[in-house]
Structure formats: C-alpha cells, structure tokens
Amino acid sequence: MLQVALDRMKNDDCVQLVSDCHPYIDIVEVGTGVIKEYGMEIVREMKKRFPDKCILADMKTCDAGKHEALQAFEAGADYTTVMGFSADKTILDTLRVSEDFQKEVVIDLLGITSADRIHELKHLGVTAVSVHIGKDMQADEGSFDVLTTFINALEGLKISVAGGINPDNIASFSKIKPDIYIVGSFITGSKVPSEAAKEIRGQMKK
Ligand SMILES: O=C(CO)[C@H](O)[C@H](O)COP(=O)(O)O
C-alpha cells in the first residue's frame, strides 16, 4: 500500500493533494506538524472528505497513551502512531483502546537502534511497526543501517517504511519487504503530486 504523508502543509493544500492523488494512494497520513497546527479537527475533516481512504493520525504519542489514542480514534482515524521508546504501559494502553475501536496502533521505531526492543514490542502485543528514518537523520547514512539490523526481528509484523523515500532509493527500503511505503516530501514537494504518486506506485510494483 502507499501512504502519503501530509507534512508542513496548510489545511486546503492537504485536501487538494489528496483529491489529486486519490487513485494512487491507500492511506492518508495527517502529519504530526499538521495535527499540531490544526488539532484533531483536520483528522475529522480528512475522514469526512475521504471516507474511502484509511486515515492515519501521526500522533507520535509517547505518554498519556489512553487519552491520545482516544483522541485519534474518536476523530475518525483508522491508525494512530505511538513511539516505540514509550513506556510499556503507554503502548499497552493504546493497544487496549485500539481493540475497543477495532482500529490499529502503528509503533514508530524512530530512535530505536536495537532489535531487542522489537522483540519486546511483539511480546506486548504490537502487530504493526513503522521503520522510520527521521527527517533530521536522513543526511547520516548510518541511520539507514536499521533496515538491515531489523530484518529478522520484523518477521510476523505488519511493516511500514518511511524516511525520504523516492524512486531512486525505494529499492533499499524494499529489502525489508514492507506492507506499506510512506512517502511524504517526494509527493508533496513535487510540481505535479499525482504524477509523483503514480511514479512511486510503479516503483513499488517493480
Ligand atoms: O513522519 C514523518 C516525519 O516525522 C514523515 O511523515 C515521514 O518521514 C515521511 O515523509 P518523507 O518522505 O518526507 O520523509
């Protein structure tokens, strides 16, 4: 699946971009910064406007798990994100809320460097993770080592990948056999976002 990440964008531009890229995307990610700007209202609006798409609220929760998971799911999100380094209780609380709503928690592995934590997360009941090379880490080639380090530990999990994915580097993300490619800047920063989304879709097939 292709998840388009809406980051550093205005409300109307988010709506326009999803309308333009509609045939090529499966999941709409309302980025953390966009949520900080507009609050849960933007999640509510995206679900209302695009009921046929899955909506991911990139809450990046790291504490107060129950409250933030409730916020996301009550606003209509199908997925919410929780940081992998959070306390186990935070993760368990969000998983419990997701069961009540029959929605999904995606654990963001940003900042996790040891596969041991992935085994612990599985033990807690986590089923979906995002292997994420952060915006500020993308310049450091060493940050991409996790793609190799995590391969065995990821077995059995639903995997998303993110971190500056574009047609030139998508092959290096493919080696961990992701279920979901998360693409932000390459699509949102493109002159014709629908063409960029179509191109990524083509690369995903390859
Ligand atoms: O979660 C994110 C930043 O924290 C982004 O949504 C994710 O990294 C995808 O965006 P890009 O393709 O621009 O890296």
UniProtKB/TrEMBL annotation:
Classification via SMART domains: OMPdecase (SM00934)
Residue ranges annotated for the Orotidine 5'-phosphate decarboxylase domain, each copy included: 1-200
UniProt superkingdom: Bacteria
Protein keywords: Carbohydrate metabolism, Lyase, One-carbon metabolism
Swiss-Prot/TrEMBL catalytic activity: D-ribulose 5-phosphate + formaldehyde = D-arabino-hex-3-ulose 6-phosphate
GO molecular function: 3-dehydro-L-gulonate-6-phosphate decarboxylase activity; hexulose-6-phosphate synthase activity; orotidine-5'-phosphate decarboxylase activity
EC number(s) reported in the record: 4.1.2.43
UniProt cross-references to InterPro entries, sorted A to Z: 3-hexulose-6-phosphate_synth, Aldolase_TIM, HPS/KGPDC, OMPdeCOase_dom, RibuloseP-bd_barrel
GO biological process, one term: L-ascorbic acid catabolic process
Pathway annotation: One-carbon metabolism; formaldehyde assimilation via RuMP pathway; D-fructose 6-phosphate from D-ribulose 5-phosphate and formaldehyde: step 1/2
Classification via Gene3D superfamilies: Aldolase class I
NCBIfam families listed in its UniProt record: RuMP_HxlA
Family, per entry: Belongs to the HPS/KGPDC family. HPS subfamily.
UniProt-recorded name of the protein: 3-hexulose-6-phosphate synthase
The organism of origin for this protein: Terrihalobacillus insolitus
